[in-house]
């Protein structure tokens, strides 16, 4: 649940366009270290950065997982 100017927002992870590494780990069941490595693949467009904060693009992450075998 998020609050902004005394308003509360309850947004499901499956509806968020971007996920923190912790949310991405909870959503996918993949460990944080593995997600960080995945985000560092050259040419990867799985993440955007807001300052130092790494945010996974949820739809791109889903597409990546559908098209790649686990390693």
Describe the structure.
This protein has 71 residues and is an alpha+beta fold. It starts with a strand and ends with a helix. It has a single domain, classed as Molybdopterin biosynthesis moea protein, domain 2 (Alpha-Beta Complex). It contains 3 helices and 5 strands.
List keywords for this structure.
globular; alpha+beta; two-stranded antiparallel ribbon; 71 residues; Molybdopterin biosynthesis moea protein, domain 2; three-stranded antiparallel β-sheet; 24% strand; 3 helices
Number of strands: 5
Q: Cα-atom Rg, whole angstroms?
A: 13 Å
Structural class: alpha+beta
Number of domains as seen in the coordinates: 1
- 3D shape: globular
Q: Distance between termini?
A: 34 Å
Count up the helices: 3
What's the CATH class label? Answer: Alpha Beta
Q: Strand arrangement, largest sheet?
A: 3-5-4
In the CATH hierarchy, the third-tier topology is known as Molybdopterin biosynthesis moea protein, domain 2
| Main sheet makeup | 3 strands, antiparallel
Ranges with pLDDT <50 over ≥5 residues?
none
How much strand content do the residues show? 15-25%
Mean pLDDT: 88
Element order: H for helix, E for strand: EEEHHEEH
